Amino acid sequence: MAQKKIxxxxxxxxxxxxxxxxxxxxxxxSEFAVHTVTRDSNSEKAKELAKMGxxxxxxxxxxxxxxKRVLSGAYGTYFVTFFWEHFSPExxxxxxxxxxxxxx
Length: 104
Description:
Blueprint: E1 5-10, H1 15-25, E2 32-38, H2 44-52, E3 55-58, H3 64-71, E4 76-78, H4 83-86, H5 89-103
Parallel strand pairs: 1-2, 1-4, 2-3
Helix pairs in contact: 3-5
């Protein structure tokens, strides 16, 4: 059996990225595996994703090295910023910049 391509999802315990993760995990013919990034791998939502088959990893979108680590070996990624947590356009731009740099 061929190894599945890894899709890394940032923000999977939320509604938007969570939908992407659920769609991949619920497709029995999917060619993708999901690595979901969360700030709290012990949260109930993270535990539920792990039960569904996702590999749950801890990471921070404001930590470039953390993002590079979780993206290592990935085929693709889905990224959601956390503007509603801080309401700072500058911080959101920094998060997006980290994502682009880590993916590169």
